[in-house]
Automatic annotation (TrEMBL):
Gene (name only): Vwde_1
Organism the protein comes from: Chaetorhynchus papuensis (pygmy drongo)
Matches recorded under Pfam families: Ig_VWDE (PF25776)
Annotated VWFD domain residues: 236-297
PANTHER family (UniProt xref): EGF-LIKE-DOMAIN, MULTIPLE 7, 8 (PTHR14949), VON WILLEBRAND FACTOR D AND EGF DOMAIN-CONTAINING PROTEIN (PTHR14949:SF52)
A GO cellular component entry from the record: extracellular region
Record protein name field: VWDE protein
Domain of life: Eukaryota
Alphabetically ordered keywords of this record: Disulfide bond, Signal
InterPro entries for this protein: Dev_Signal_Modulators, Ig_VWDE, VWF_type-D
GO MF entry, a single one: signaling receptor binding
């Protein structure tokens, strides 16, 4: 009986004669008499719907299909479905078994980020799930991705400057042996721009665009965006006003009637400090100083 065969098809990427192929492997037990396999390749055409792109019958425990940029393109999620049957009796067949969907193209890990305006750097990994081919004779084995950011705005607000900064404007994906879901990888760091504005949580996105690829497979491909949500952190306030009344960050109040240049505040965690200059403004009858200058680093 062929009903309990547990074929467990798995899709892996491979370079065959310099061209990107997907390989569907299945691990049958060795039944007698010889068994053949019907392999159906399909791609996700819309949510929940698949479109058949190739099928074949083979005695081998694997099947190849080429990422040709026409039937299978970068950005496709691909499946292979395998059915086993005996050569002389095709009506005796196993139940069809599906592979997991294989996404062919660029992936970002993590797929989305939620970060705060705290100056921390967050590592974003950019990886290709398919091998990088070398179309020319020179050492042009790489795909360069141009990175950009865009503010998504909030409600009806017009999008403004991006809320995030990247450590690089482009990354190079260099070929390496495929391992897991990665055939080439690079990293970039993302930091939230500290704008001192109480503007709530705002959305931005990171875009990646292959820059002038020689390989035709990459020319019409735009990877999915990464959404980044930037969360406000409360901003502290301190004051020095009129004949200087001072209110500290934690709400303590006092007066400073002295004349001179003073350190108003200094951060212990970053290069930031504020100096104030106070001059005599009380005349002969009272000793009073007023703010007349400020310097901030």
């Amino acid at each position: 009986k062929l009903t309990g065969l547990a074929l467990q098809p798995v899709i892996t990427p491979e370079l065959v004669q310099g061209r990107v192929h997907l390989k569907c492997s299945y691990s049958p037990r060795s039944p007698e008499p010889p068994v053949q396999y019907r392999v159906l390749w399909s791609r996700l055409s819309s949510p929940g719907k698949r479109e058949q792109v190739h099928h074949e019958t083979t005695p081998q425990s694997f099947s190849y299909v080429e990422m040709d940029g026409v039937n299978l393109r970068l950005g496709d999620t691909v499946f292979c479905t395998v059915t086993a049957f005996r050569r002389g009796t095709p009506e005796q067949q196993s139940l069809p078994e599906d592979s997991k969907g294989f996404y062919a193209g660029i992936k970002f890990l993590p797929e989305s980020l939620e970060i705060a305006e705290d100056g921390k750097e967050h590592v974003l990994t950019v990886l290709s799930t398919v091998p990088i081919a070398c179309p020319g004779q020179d050492d042009s084995c790489k795909i360069t991705l141009q990175l950009s950011t865009e503010d998504l705005g909030k409600g009806s607000r017009v999008p403004g400057p991006p809320d995030i900064a990247l450590s690089a404007c482009q990354v190079d994906l260099l070929p390496e042996p495929c391992s897991g879901s990665s055939c080439a990888a690079a990293t970039v760091t993302v930091t939230a721009v500290t704008d001192f504005a109480q503007d709530g949580s705002r959305g931005s996105r990171i875009r990646a665009q292959p820059a002038a690829p020689r390989d035709s497979l990459w020319r019409a491909y735009t990877p999915r965006d990464v959404k980044v949500t930037v969360r406000d952190l409360p901003t502290g306030n301190c004051y020095s006003f009129t004949d200087p009344h001072i209110i500290t960050f934690d709400g303590w109040r006092y007066d400073n009637y002295k004349i001179g240049t003073f350190l108003l505040c200094r951060s212990e965690s970053r290069a930031f400090e504020v100096h104030v200059r106070q001059w005599d403004c009380g005349g002969h009858r009272s000793t009073t100083a007023c703010n007349c200058g400020v310097a901030a680093q």
